[in-house]
Structure to design on (502 residues):
């Protein structure tokens, strides 16, 4: 289980996602419209077409510990817009706004920065509704710019508008001794709505919550235990999604994550673009010209820190970014014995009768019950494969060189029916599916291959039958991938298949 420092590292990645994108210059087209995630606009901004809705709400499940009285602490985290203007000193005193100013070899630009904010509320005993009012001060900060002789030649003025929010914490019985915790956040800042810039100045940016429980345990909504499944389905979210994060904590994020998200240990620091691969983006930064790097440094202090960090990386640092090669057969293997209880790369995280991760796939339990059997149809690793010697064993990463792998003929049993290439299935994405997969719920698909991954998981590759581009996707290998318990065998007539006699 990850600690709170690691939870904050993930939360910081959410906080700054899209803050400033490569090449980190103010003149880049992609940096003209910012603040994409977790924006709580001032009242009326969305209706006026100049901003976002003012609220978010989260519902999650608490399992009280015995007779203990649960307490919940709410951490509201966000960015407050900080508008930076640049002013040149006049010969007769006073200052004049200018778009940019170079002092002692460093250039400053007019730009919208942001100040990190965190408001801690509670601990509250979750019972009747309790409303908190959050007041965030505005203000002006002035930084004098001096030449090498110490004479003032200009100044930076950073202005922040005050923000006000209402946070309501509530709890209701959810059945089975569980509590449904609710946290509602609403921006109530009076703000002019003249344009997008004015609305943004009165917005909470990158807003998200860290909820910490004492005397109770949060239950997963992504993969709830069977006893809490009905209560989990009744939890409705608005503009965020709660995931387990750390010991006794939930991260309610405007970006959909899995339970227990972590920042990769190889990462050297944030790049504000989690859809990109760190190594690729770092190498791109390193290829910028000196003038391009200077422009990025002039744009924002965070951009300057990214440029400096990339410039300092050693060959060893870059090698770590390149990734790590793990032996999938050590301690459980890719196939065959990877489904033993306690097998797999992470001890008992891969359970009997399942090649899939997480407690939802316990033997005879989880989302698929016992419909996904241990007989995966994939052959066991050949005895001559040396699990500890990558040089002497079979190259497990290359199916063309390992005859024990045959995606075209391998199969997996689902509800007693063999699923293999050209089988027809109906897609049933589970709650752990990503948002895009949910668009395919109920669609009929044709299986193109049954695959195993290096962690011992099973994946069914498919194309959508009524997709006009299905043949094209099949030709160049652009497939959709689902777990065995997310597909339902059907016959050619479109009816569900009955289990085969054994």
């Amino acid at each position: 289980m990850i600690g709170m420092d690691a939870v904050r590292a993930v939360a910081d990645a959410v906080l700054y996602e899209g803050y400033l994108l490569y090449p980190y210059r103010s003149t880049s087209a992609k940096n003209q419209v910012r603040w994409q995630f977790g924006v709580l606009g001032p009242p009326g901004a969305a209706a006026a077409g100049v901003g976002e809705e003012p609220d978010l709400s989260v519902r999650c499940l608490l399992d009280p510990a015995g007779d203990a009285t649960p307490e919940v602490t709410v951490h509201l985290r966000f960015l407050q817009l900080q508008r930076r203007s640049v002013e040149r000193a006049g010969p007769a005193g006073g200052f004049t706004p200018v778009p940019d100013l170079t002092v002692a070899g460093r250039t400053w630009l007019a730009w919208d920065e942001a100040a990190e904010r965190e408001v801690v509320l509670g601990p509250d005993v979750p019972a009747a509704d309790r409303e908190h009012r959050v007041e965030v001060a505005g203000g002006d900060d002035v930084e004098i710019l001096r030449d090498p002789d110490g004479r003032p030649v200009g100044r930076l003025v950073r202005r922040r508008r005050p923000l006000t929010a209402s946070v309501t914490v509530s709890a209701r019985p959810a059945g089975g001794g569980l509590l449904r915790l609710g946290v509602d956040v609403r921006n109530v800042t009076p703000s002019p709505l003249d344009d997008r810039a004015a609305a943004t100045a009165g917005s909470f940016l990158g807003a998200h919550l860290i909820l910490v429980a004492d005397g109770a345990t949060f239950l997963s909504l992504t993969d709830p235990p069977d006893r809490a499944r009905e209560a989990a389905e009744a939890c409705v979210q608005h503009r965020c999604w709660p995931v387990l994060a750390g010991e006794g904590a939930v991260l309610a994020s405007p970006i959909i994550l899995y339970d227990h998200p972590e920042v990769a240990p190889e990462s050297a620091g944030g790049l504000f673009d989690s859809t990109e691969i760190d190594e690729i983006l770092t190498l791109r930064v390193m290829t910028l010209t000196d003038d391009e790097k200077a422009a990025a440094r002039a744009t924002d202090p965070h951009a300057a820190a990214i440029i400096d960090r990339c410039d300092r990386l050693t060959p060893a640092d870059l090698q770590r970014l390149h990734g790590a090669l793990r032996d999938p057969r050590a301690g459980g293997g890719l196939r065959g014995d990877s489904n033993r209880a306690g097998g797999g790369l992470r001890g008992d995280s891969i359970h009997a009768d399942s090649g899939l991760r997480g407690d939802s796939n316990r033997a005879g339990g989880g989302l698929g019950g016992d419909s996904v059997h241990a007989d995966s149809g994939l052959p066991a690793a050949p005895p001559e494969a040396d699990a500890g010697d990558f040089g002497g064993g079979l190259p497990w990463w290359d199916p063309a060189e390992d005859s024990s792998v045959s995606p075209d003929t391998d199969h997996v049993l689902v509800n007693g029916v063999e699923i293999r290439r050209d089988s027809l299935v109906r897609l049933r994405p589970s709650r752990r599916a990503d948002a895009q997969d949910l668009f395919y719920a109920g669609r009929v698909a044709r299986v193109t291959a049954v695959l195993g991954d290096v962690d011992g998981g099973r994946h069914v590759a498919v194309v959508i039958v009524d997709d006009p581009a299905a043949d094209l996707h099949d030709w160049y290998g652009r497939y959709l991938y689902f777990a065995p318990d997310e597909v339902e065998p059907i016959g050619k007539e479109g009816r569900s298949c009955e289990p085969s006699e054994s």
Q: What stands out?
A: The CA atoms of residues 78 and 207 lie 4 Å apart. The longest strand covers residues 71-89. The chain has nine helices and 22 strands.
